Amino acid sequence: MTTYKTDYGFIKPTHIEEEMRTSYLDYAMSVIVSRALPDVRDGLKPVQRRILYAMEELGMRPGQGYKKSARLVGEVLGKYHPHNNDSVYEAMVRMAQDFTMRLPLVDGQGNFGSVDNDPPAAMRYTEARMQAVAEEMLVNIDENTVDHIDNFDGTLREPVVLPARLPNLMINGASGIAVGMATNIPPHNPTEICNAVVHLVDHPDATVEDLLKHVQGPDFPTGGTIMGREGIRNAYSTGRGQIIVRAKAEIEPMSRSNRMQIIVSELPYQVNKAALVEKIANLTKDKRLQGISEVRDESDREGMRVVIELRTGTQPMVVLNNLYKLTPMQNSFSANMLALVEGMPRTITLKVALLSFIDFRREVVRRRAEFQLEKARQRAHILAGLRIAVSNLDEVIAIIRGAADTPSARDALMTRFSLDEPQSQAILDMQLRRISTLERERLEEEYAQIQTTIQGLEELLGDENKIMLEIKKETRALRKKFGEDRRTDISLDAHDISRAELEAHEQVVVTLSQGGYIKRIPANTYRNQHRGGKGVVSMTTREDDPVKHLLVADTHDTLLFFTNRGRVHKLTVFELRPDTSRNTRGVPVVNVVQLGANETVSAVVAVDSLDHDDTFLMLGTRNGKIKRIALSSIGNIRPSGGVLGMRLQKKGSEIGKRKLSQDDRVVGMAIILHNSDSRLLVISKKGFGKLTAVDKYRRQGRGGKGILTFDIQPRKTGPVAVAEVVDDSKELYLVSEQAQVQRTNLSEISTTIGRKASGVIIMRLASGDSVSSIACVSDLDSGTSATGKSNGKGNAEASKPAAESKNGTANAQRNGSAKAELVDADEESDEPQMSFDDMTEEDDETDSDD
């Protein structure tokens, strides 16, 4: 387009879209290159580089006095960085914070902020100087090791990059937000990075896996624990990766109390401690975090200490896992290794970062050697002229005396001894003391040394391997001087916090109605009553929906649902929504397990684990069919559809030998030891029950009718509702069809001598109600133990993990179904029994009411 001249200057017409595009790109590149991103060579942003360079010029070196921060900021602003003074001071403050940088470059005196995000004092109050490690960033800067450019107004020169003997980019990391891009490079351990540099010098073809042998992972100044290595490997191989970091916490007993407390000593990188404490307090107040009574910050100059006191009976590991899940005590560091490579932004890998540093150091060492060689040659040239003057001292003195002035003397010396102007001037500047014998000897020694130096520098410049050896030598010296042990641990455990780790162990009562409504409620909701009590309401039911199943289980137990189709579904107890009221109806069971059309739950069993190889389920139908299956064989139950546990015959099929009357039904079964001192508990429909020693029952052959065990009186006792073998159980739960729950001690039920007695009243029922199901537990305490494992685990020891309980046999004492019992293979009687393995099974999968 044509440019027009006006009274105000020249006007060039342009499209606004093009002008906006050009201007924005210029601005974006300025922010990217000149402000936000670090250079891969020295790992510094322009403002950081200018701060260190200004400190060098102001003499703010280690060992010297501190100078006001405001003076430094003014120096940087006035000479090199024409931006807001806050940007300079904030950058300087970060370089002084030991919780931000792995090796701080600035030694600050005064308030430079804290891990609680407290702001630093104003720059007029604080003072600073360089740290010793910062000198390694500036070493040899006056030896033409790096290029210099004009400052913003062209009056001064500033370095494009610092010589940086220290691999600063990977040691201190970097973070910054540019236009359309950002960088987030984690800090690392100085020793490990130096080792990796040395290894890469010797093995330039090293892979990421090779480097991982030297660099374990990021090493944050605030410590913490990195969970897993996958994020580290991704970051090092691709430049991007999610690194999960957890706080370090210990569980300790409180003094003069039986309560526990969690002590947090290290936090993930860049986590605000004060904000964390506040969040924990708010989550506790909102009841999203349970079991915490108090949280306070006891940190001091000796280190970090956040104390989280727990309530009595709280399980510490569950609370700690919830803290990891809900608060920044577990945080994700998103590594995005973006840096300027040859002036352009580029995502780099660990190897690229270290190779770029090595290449830069090779150039620095070469330029330094060239500079030093030139200086040495110049000095050798001067020394050669001085040697001539000393060897011809009388003649030199005579020439100087005879000269009219200094230029004449200089010219005469140049003519007489074939010297150049610098050599002649050096002779004229030579002090008289240099003509002494001792000074003449020192002159010869200096000349010999300078010749050796020249030879060494020439050999260095002529051999690339010697340059690389020099880099290794300097890197090892840095490692020795600044190397430290790791602060951040690395755990191989990389799994996400599971639901099981967030749920407390608690003894709960699970009820299931005939209509398929299921609910869970804490066992301590039901108070213990004496024998003959009426119980309390456990759930709201309809008249046509009586309660059929009752289980007392731990929240981490697995519920096995056996359906009328012979299928088995599973569900962890804590997956049931907890009900806070006994009067709620619960939720339809089809909402928690996927049942097919016309498929209903016939029995429910609670097991602590499905991994027991020598533990079996014994299944029985009302019509007498029995099957034994290994518990481990149904361990991989699909969430949808479950697994087939027993093939049922068509309704009305011949079942084989049985001696039950037409109106009789099997209500329970169990396996007992041959020499067992167990007792048989029998409960009638109207709440009468009795305990009888099992040795009162003689053995019968298969197909026998059995022997009488309960004196049934239709009006008084009603028929037998449930029967269960009791070993070391101490407490009994009964549920009626109208959802009344009675909790009582088994010790209140006396063991009868005769088998034919009708027992005593255990539960007083309302008119029209009847006993539906029972559950026996071996531990009266429904609380939690200090180890975090719930009590009430049947025969298992409450303080042991579920996997340590004896083959899962405890589950037989707390399941609520009379039609499915756990059997321990090691505890089967040696007497002849029915062969379950030889039983013939039908292939027909047709639905059956059996």
Automatic annotation (TrEMBL):
Q: Which reaction does it catalyse?
A: ATP-dependent breakage, passage and rejoining of double-stranded DNA
Q: Which residues form the Topo IIA-type catalytic domain?
A: 37-502
Which GO terms of the cellular component aspect does the record hold? cytoplasm; DNA topoisomerase type II (double strand cut, ATP-hydrolyzing) complex
Recorded hits in PROSITE patterns, A to Z, give:
TOPO_IIA
Q: Which InterPro entries match?
A: GyrA/parC_rep, Gyrase/topoIV_suA_C, Topo_IIA-like_dom_sf, Topo_IIA_A/C_ab, Topo_IIA_A_a_sf, Topo_IIA_dom_A, Type_II_DNA_Topoisomerases
The EC number(s) attached to this protein equal 5.6.2.2
Name this polypeptide is given: DNA topoisomerase (ATP-hydrolyzing)
